[in-house]
Amino acid sequence: MGSLGRKAVWGAAVALWLMVPATSASASDRQGKVDRVLQEASSGSPRPVIIRVRPEAKERIRKLLPRRGRGPVFHRLISAASAQLDAREIADLASDPDVLSISTDAHVTSSASGSKGGGSATVANTTPSTDSSSSTSFNTETWPISVVQKSLGLEKWFTGSSLTVAVIDSGLTSSVDFSGRIVGFYDFVAGQGGVAMVPFDEYGHGTHVAGLIGASGASSNGKYAGVAPGIKMLGLRVLDRKGSGKTSDVISALEFVLANKDRFNIRVVNLSLGHPIYESAATDPLVQAVEAVVRAGLVVVVAAGNNGTNPTTGQIGYAGIASPGNAPSAITVGAAVTAGTDVRSDDRVATFSSRGPSWYDGIAKPDVVAPGFALVSNEVDGSTLATTYPSLIVQEGTSKYLRLNGSSMATALVSGLVAVLIEAHNYGAYQRWQAVQETLRRNQRTEYPGAPALTANALKAMLQYSATPLRNAEGVPFDALTQGSGEVNGLGALGLAYYADTTQAAGSYWMTTTLAPMTNFGGVQEPWSETIVWGTRLMRGSSVVDVNQTAWAENIVWGTGELDNIVWGTFSPEDDNIVWGTSMSWDDNIVWGTSLFFGNAAFGENIVWGTSMSWDDNIVWGTGLIGTFDGDNIVWGTMVDDTDNIVWGTLSDDNIVWGTSSNKVMVLGTSIGGGL
Q: What is the pTM of this model?
């Protein structure tokens, strides 16, 4: 991670479920149950909310909720109800000991743009495309490796044809590129709860994302085929023609996925959308829904967001991760820029890509980055994106495509890659079983029993361990809060998935061959990161992936657990922690804005912008929450007996006082930025 002075210790891993005592709630307790948007609401009129309750009390609480609009609607996945409540009703419910939290039913938007800065695209109106469901077959073997397959270092060995990805987005328009592979389409917009319909996409974002995941390439002779060109797709529409939706609809779509995972053979869920983080991951309904889906055995791939820069100054900043990108067990993906070459030495993390840590909890994100700049994929004639950004339409023969930027696009590539890894692992397991049968020389072979699936944690570990660490133009490595472990390496991760024998017991070696930790890109051997970002630590050493870790189990939340219960191998105590910042100069200003804007939503909290940060003493974030205020101070971490703890804040008009619990005081002048 470069020379950054002494190590910084990142906060303890977040506990996902808050235990609320079943007693009368004080005023502070009531406020603690309500997210910041509702706390700061100026109007007492009814507004859409999501109420999480104790499972045993759901029927009692349901009877207390007023009937307004389509509500109340209960979400069994997270033991919650969506409803419309006024300020008084919110306050009354917050006093109920069986109510765990009350959250705004936040607007979600896509994480893509045709604009230079990578923010959410604006919208107009549209007309849906027609359906094309012919069963025409194509000889894909004669086509070259597609643009996105090549960018990940993939060959055409696996296509993902044995499984289904659920694309929760603005819809999906049938075309020759998806012929015969759309297994279903359901509309959840405006609280419809999943109405079966002919596939359509008024906004155009979902179709673009689906194309990157798994377009066959039939309309481009393979050039714009997706990462997994044989995969089946389930389209779940949650974003309207303006690219906007509600959190409750996304949760309903996730519930549908879980209820129908076996029916449609769903293994991967793509969420190229999100909303600002308004509360801890422990109470965020969307995060809790994602975690529940992962616990059920699915892999959820989510966008980090496009909030990497100050929209006014262009200054790069941290803590812009969107929800549900702060879900610990999701694979959260940031965006990289490939410069259009086969080598990776000129690949960079996109400036618009959201950096970690997550707001409130300080969760280390993103997990990885993937190409997410100027990606060409399927266009929908008449869609909002196509009509708003006609200059981004790409003509290839008689077909039209759209060129977009964003962590949405990067997320789609990783979803396709995960599907390929799952298929590669399943094929490798079958081949190993066949080899055993040949060795036993049986006259009648037994039926193939299958092998345990690779879990979401195991797949994330493989993606991180094999990733290519990226550097900036000056050759300085990007830190873990910018790139996670690095840019995903399709070929490297595929090898790990193929050779992992999941029949081996937890704690034992499961790799059936030894892989050299490097991959050839454009004739240059690029070393793997050989690093896993696990909670507070950067874990290194071959045993991280050579061993079937107990940490890979479905019931383990990523980043949690006692390290002595995990067989990690070796790592360096001096560089195993996550370090904030990339340079060692106190002379560079650190800019604090008065608010952080995510699309049309604004935070009232301050955020640190800039990467020029260096610490002469260790900084301990402890278990504190990012964004917690004590008067004018922003307190990062819990003050303990460590004299290196730092309280951030004491803002004045022109400086920030950096005070420590020792006798040292550091002052940076001219460091307040206004009007973010």
A: 0.83
